[in-house]
TrEMBL record, chain A:
Keywords: Cytoplasm, Nucleus. GO terms for biological process: rRNA (guanine-N7)-methylation; tRNA methylation. Coiled coil: none annotated. It is found in: Cytoplasm, Perinuclear region; Nucleus, Nucleoplasm. The keyword Repressor does not apply. One of its GO terms (cellular component) is perinuclear region of cytoplasm. This is Multifunctional methyltransferase subunit TRM112-like protein. It comes from the Eukaryota. GO terms for molecular function: protein heterodimerization activity.
UniProtKB/TrEMBL annotation, chain B:
The gene is 100862796. Keywords: Cytoplasm, Methyltransferase, Nucleus, S-adenosyl-L-methionine, Transferase. This is 18S rRNA (guanine-N(7))-methyltransferase. Residues 187-258 form the 18S rRNA (guanine(1575)-N(7))-methyltransferase Bud23 C-terminal domain. It is found in: Cytoplasm; Nucleus. Residues 227-236 have a biased composition (Basic and acidic residues). GO terms for cellular component: cytoplasm; nucleolus. Residues 41-116 form the Methyltransferase type domain. It holds the Pfam family Methyltransf_11. S-adenosyl-L-methionine-dependent methyltransferase that specifically methylates the N(7) position of a guanine in 18S rRNA. Requires the methyltransferase adapter protein TRM112 for full rRNA methyltransferase activity. Involved in the pre-rRNA processing steps leading to small-subunit rRNA production independently of its RNA-modifying catalytic activity. Important for biogenesis end export of the 40S ribosomal subunit independent on its methyltransferase activity. Locus-specific steroid receptor coactivator. Residues 221-261 are annotated as: Disordered.
Length: 125, 261
């Protein structure tokens, strides 16, 4: 699971959950996979992110080194920064572990890099 | 044996080619700003065939699919999109306004199947469209290529989409060719806009604008929007039936007045 996916993912489809964000990450296996760097995309996507959530998520899996906790001015002109953001967003992958809903405590397993958000009948709104 | 393998290989390549073309067409219909790199949702992404096309067009995507074996293939193929195992009928599990657009190739017809006894297709469609709507950014579109079984399915789809707040309609490419005919449900979040021209047809007023036009003149409950010409004509007809004195309908009835009024 990439951190860009995690930054957008919620458990709000669960019955009784209002926002379901952010999901807490517990990772037992992490990989880094190379992805082509597209600075334009990274600059465009940063305003969509919850940057604090991204930083906390990266930190929780030991990948926050060199990543600023808050966005600086003119970050879109800072290639060093964009490359770091690119790595954290697209290249670091949680292979195994689970996500936890902050409201219900319900866990969602991550297996072979894919988070399983399937609900059982009783959980559907 | 070799001949059979060859023909299977050819038909698989053909399927891949068609999926690719349909994804390109979805992208076209999405009307994303030119030369921009967007974050797109791929609904029913499967093994990532459509996702690859999105990547080739410079976009980033997050895909959801109900089949873990298909998603495993997407991982094997080293697709670059984010992948989530999820059932679209349970809702689209993403933050409000995060996607610049959504595409879906040959997937939404699965919402009509009631795989489990407790599945209610209408409820699932509603859940899907409502949560999809909220996950899209302002003025983002969603384009679905699908194969409707019948008129009723088409109606149900568009009704549920409109209930969720979408505007739009169905574009039918090559409507006169049984083989090439393709349906695209085009949904818009930000106000009524014209539907793009369908491929393979010269008729400007054909099937493809049917649903958009209907939605432009009628509100969600199928009644004309208040103060529109249709509404005025209906109201006058009601008055006549009630026996009230009503001015006759002329070419001036319900005509737009200039700002000075």
């Amino acid at each position: 699971m990439k951190l860009i996916t995690h930054n957008m993912l919620t458990s709000k489809c669960l019955k009784g959950v209002v926002t379901g964000y952010p999901l807490a990450i517990n990772a037992t296996d992490i990989k880094v996979k190379e992805v082509d760097f597209n600075p334009e995309f990274i600059s465009r996507v940063i305003p969509k992110l919850d940057w604090e959530v991204l930083w906390v998520a990266a930190d929780s899996i030991g990948h926050s080194d060199g990543l600023p906790r808050s966005l600086e001015n003119k970050y879109d002109e800072n290639e060093e920064f964009l490359k770091k953001a690119h790595k954290v967003l697209l290249e670091v992958e949680v292979e195994e572990g689970h996500l936890t809903c902050p409201e219900s405590g319900r866990q969602f397993p991550i297996s072979k890099g894919i988070p399983n958000m399937l609900l059982n009948e009783a959980e559907v709104q | 044996m070799m001949k059979r393998l060859e023909s299977i290989h050819k038909s698989t390549s053909r399927i891949i080619e068609i999926q690719g073309q349909m994804t390109e067409r979805c992208l076209e219909l999405l009307l994303l700003p030119e030369d921009s790199s967007c974050l797109l949702l791929d609904i029913g992404c499967g093994s990532g065939l459509s996702g690859t096309v999105l990547e080739e067009n410079g976009h980033m995507w997050i895909g959801m699919d109900i089949s873990s074996s298909m998603l495993d293939v997407a991982v094997e193929r080293d697709t670059e999109g984010g992948l989530v195992l999820a059932d679209m009928g349970e809702g689209v599990p993403f933050r409000a306004g995060c996607f610049d657009g959504a595409v879906s190739v040959s997937a939404i017809q699965w919402l009509f199947n009631a795989d489990k006894k407790t599945h209610n297709p209408v409820k699932r469609l509603n859940k899907f469209f409502t949560t999809l709507y909220s996950s899209l950014s302002r003025s983002a579109r969603a384009v679905f290529q699908f194969y409707p079984e019948n008129e009723k399915q088409l109606e149900l789809l568009t009704t549920q989409a409109m209930k969720a707040g979408f505007y739009g309609g169905v574009v039918i490419d090559y409507p006169n060719s049984a083989k090439a005919k393709k349906f695209f449900l085009v949904l818009m979040t930000g106000g009524v806009g014209p539907l793009p021209q369908a491929l393979g047809t010269e008729e400007p007023d054909s099937l493809q604008v049917k649903y958009a036009k209907r939605e432009a003149t009628k509100g969600i409950r199928g009644k004309p929007i208040k103060n529109s010409k249709d509404w005025i004509l209906e109201k006058k007809e009601r008055r006549r039936k009630q026996g009230k004195i009503t001015k006759p309908d002329t070419k001036y009835t319900g005509r737009k007045r200039s700002g000075r009024f």
